[in-house]
Amino acid sequence: QVQLAESGGGLVQAGGSLRLSCAASGTVVSIDIMGWYRQAPGKQREWVAGITGGGYRNYLDSVKGRFTIARDNAKNSVYLQMNSLKPEDTAVYYCYIASPDLHWGQGTQVTVSS
After folding, report:
1. What Cα–Cα distance (Å) separates residue 14 from each residue in 8, 10, 49, 86, 111?
2. Fewest 10 Å CB contacts: which of 12, 49, 88, 110?
3. Mean pLDDT, residues 13-24 taken together
4. Pick from 6, 66, 7, 69: nearest CA to 33
5. What dihedral angle (degrees, nearest 10) is formed by the CA atoms of 20, 25, 30, 33?
6. Do residues 103 and 2 make contact, with C-beta atoms less than 8 angstroms apart?
7. 102 in helix, strand or coil?
8. What is the distance between the alpha carbons of residues 1 and 8, in angstroms, rounded to a whole number?
């Protein structure tokens, strides 16, 4: 089995920064895509960012220029650096990996106050 452990969420004022981390453990075969989704209260889960094994990155339009995704293959980990946070970024953030099946983390709360 594969387990994903997230950390780094919290409460921050608008304009602040947070860095989310997610580490995969267990029977991890080669990981293809790693990334993040988020779910705000009363809304559907939405994709935020993804990074391929070759390092190609893609982002939700509303976070481009503010969020940066990175991965450390040696540590089976993915990170999300979030800068210039806005109240609308408030959500539970979930990491995921494709290895090759899809695996999800338990979620970490990010709250941005205005």
Report:
1. 17, 13, 20, 5, 9
2. 88
3. 97
4. 69
5. -30
6. yes
7. strand
8. 24
Across 82-92, b (16+ Cβ under 10 Å) vs e yields beebeeebbbb
Residue listed under structure tokens 């210039």: 84
Contacts of 4 (CB under 8 A, 6+ apart): 22, 23, 24, 25, 95, 96, 97, 103, 104, 105, 106
Question: In DSSP terms, which residues pair with 77 in a beta bridge?
Answer: 23, 72
Tokens, residue 10: 């919290």
**Location of structure tokens 């919290």:** 10
The per-residue pLDDT for range 32-77, each reduced to its tens digit, is: 999 999 999 999 999 999 999 999 999 999 999 999 999 999 999 9
Nearest to 36 by CA among 13, 17, 20, 54: 20
Q: Are 103 and 4 in contact (CB under 8 A)?
A: yes
Q: What is the mean predicted confidence (pLDDT) over 87-97?
A: 97
